[in-house]
């Protein structure tokens, strides 16, 4: 998840919906053990706050306690370190379950003219040399199903570029100003992503 300053209400929505998701999965027959993790990203100007990672846990309480320490801050220019965040989620977290779901939530795209015409401190792309093909390719190699939660229209170009690399994937509309509605949207999107991945996996 993008954890820059503009994402405050959506971070709260994620915190408030995760228990509902875990409880819902526990009612399925057979019950599904959900391991939830969190990878937050900001931007290159945010230094040590650029990435905030909590590895997977089966404890809903541990997850909620971890995410309660996430605060919206920083960000700089409109584009954010999307590729750095996705790369960290794929390569720095301990993926174990056979069905693997990555729900990415963001309001702005990665750096680079390939993704946006907005003001950009890195118009040539990721300053660390990450490219979408490599990051998304590693995600596919790890058997991770990708889902995106769209908050603004600023991510449309990114969505199309990503689809040209990995094919079609579900995009959820998470635009909302009402806290209750936002939690409901998070819940529906997360459950849908997990159920879709399980169906595709044939498990």
Describe this structure in words.
By secondary structure, the chain is α/β, with parallel strands linked by helices. The protein has a single domain, classed as Rossmann fold, CATH 3.40.50. It has helices at residues 8-26, 60-67, 82-91, 132-141, 156-166, 179-201; strands at 36-41, 51-57, 100-106, 144-150, 171-173. Strands 3-4-5 form a 3-stranded parallel β-sheet, with helices on both faces. Strands 1-2 form a two-stranded antiparallel sheet. Helix 5 (156-166) links the parallel strand 4 (144-150) and strand 5 (171-173). The chain is globular, with a radius of gyration of 16 Å. The chain starts with 7 loop residues before the first helix and ends with a helix. Residues 1-92 form the Hemicentin-1-like von Willebrand factor A domain.
CATH fold field value: Rossmann fold
How many individual β-strands? Answer: 5
Radius of gyration: 16 Å
Number of domain modules: 1
CATH-assigned homologous superfamily? von Willebrand factor, type A domain
Counting DSSP H or I runs of 4 or more residues, the number of helices is 6
Structural class: alpha/beta
Distance between the termini: 27 Å
Which spans have pLDDT < 50 for at least 5 consecutive residues? none
Question: Which architecture does the CATH hierarchy give at level 2?
Answer: 3-Layer(aba) Sandwich
Largest sheet: 3 strands, parallel
Briefly, what CATH class? Alpha Beta
Helix content: 25-40%
What is the element string, with H for helices and E for strands?
HEEHHEHEHEH
GO molecular function, one term: kinase activity
Domain Hemicentin-1-like von Willebrand factor A: 1-92
Protein name: Kinase-like domain-containing protein
Keywords: Kinase, Secreted, Signal, Transferase
């Amino acid at each position: 998840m993008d954890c820059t300053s503009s994402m405050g209400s959506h971070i709260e929505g994620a915190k408030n919906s995760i228990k509902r998701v875990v409880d819902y999965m526990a009612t399925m027959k057979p019950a599904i053990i959900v391991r939830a993790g969190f990878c937050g990203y900001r931007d290159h100007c945010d230094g040590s706050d650029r990435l905030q990672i909590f590895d997977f846990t089966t404890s809903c309480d541990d997850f909620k306690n971890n995410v309660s320490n996430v605060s919206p801050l920083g960000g700089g220019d409109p584009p954010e370190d999307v590729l750095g965040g996705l790369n960290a989620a794929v390569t720095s977290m301990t993926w174990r379950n056979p069905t693997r779901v990555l729900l990415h939530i963001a309001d702005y795209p990665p750096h680079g003219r390939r993704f946006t015409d907005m003001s950009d401190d890195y118009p040539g792309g990721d300053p660390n040399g990450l490219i979408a093909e490599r990051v998304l390719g590693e995600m596919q190699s790890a058997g991770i199903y990708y889902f995106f939660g769209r908050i603004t229209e600023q991510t449309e170009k990114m969505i199309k570029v990503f689809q040209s690399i990995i094919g079609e994937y579900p995009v959820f509309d998470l635009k909302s100003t009402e806290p209750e509605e936002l939690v409901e949207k998070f819940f529906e999107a997360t459950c849908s992503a997990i159920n879709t991945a399980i169906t595709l996996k044939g498990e």
